[in-house]
Specification:
With 197 residues, the protein is of the alpha+beta class. It contains seven helices and five strands, in the order H-H-E-E-H-E-E-E-H-H-H-H. The longest helix has 23 residues.
């Protein structure tokens, strides 16, 4: 019986792939995925919707001065959006690309609600925390850089994902986007196709 158990354990060890995860690279991937999710949410906002925002200035009659700005540039609205953005990470999984064994994370579902077609191109990493570290990393990034993210949208800056993940936070400074932005991890194209329709 002991021999059978040892032989079984030996075979299991051969079939279960132990994957060492670079936690800094994982955090970089989470940062980029988080910004992709924010971009997807922002792209659904009608740019013609305006909101009144006030400040502490008053006119000569003592009335507060208001101005109208696009909802997309509203600090309060962007902050509200960021409050629940990390829940989207529950739909993401860690994986390694089959052709080069590089770490990736991706959403199991497309914006249309179907299974992600990239699933056949990766080996999913099964882990004990059920990918809760993805949501944890996302929450950490949002908490630490929320003001910076809001400024990126209020000031309508280009390439917000790389500005935040590489220039502002330095989370991805050692991980060029080209390494992560190939066909196996190109969630951007899924969101762009959805918004262009």
């Amino acid at each position: 019986m002991k021999v059978f158990l040892l032989v079984t354990l030996f075979f299991i060890q051969d079939f279960v792939e132990s994957t060492e995860i670079d936690l800094k690279h994982l955090k970089c991937l989470v940062c980029r995925a988080t910004m992709n999710e924010v971009e997807a949410k922002v792209s659904k906002i009608n740019p013609k919707i305006l909101v009144e925002v006030g400040n502490y200035k008053m006119d000569a009659q003592g009335n507060q001065i208001y101005k109208k700005i696009p909802l997309i540039k509203s600090e309060v609205h962007i902050s509200d959006m960021l409050d629940d953005i990390c829940q989207k990470m529950n739909d993401y999984v860690r994986a390694t690309k089959k052709y080069n064994k590089k770490l990736t994370i991706f959403n199991l579902m497309t914006p249309e609600g179907t299974m992600n077609p990239q699933m056949s191109k990766v080996d999913i990493i099964h882990d004990g925390d059920l990918n809760k570290s993805l949501e944890y990393n996302c929450n950490t990034i949002i908490e630490e850089f929320e003001d910076d993210i809001i400024k990126l949208y209020v000031n309508d800056l280009e390439n917000r994902k790389e500005k935040l993940c590489t220039e502002i936070s330095n989370i991805c400074e050692n991980y060029p986007e080209d390494d992560d932005n190939d066909d196996d991890n190109n969630i951007d194209s899924l969101f762009k196709n959805k918004s262009e329709l």
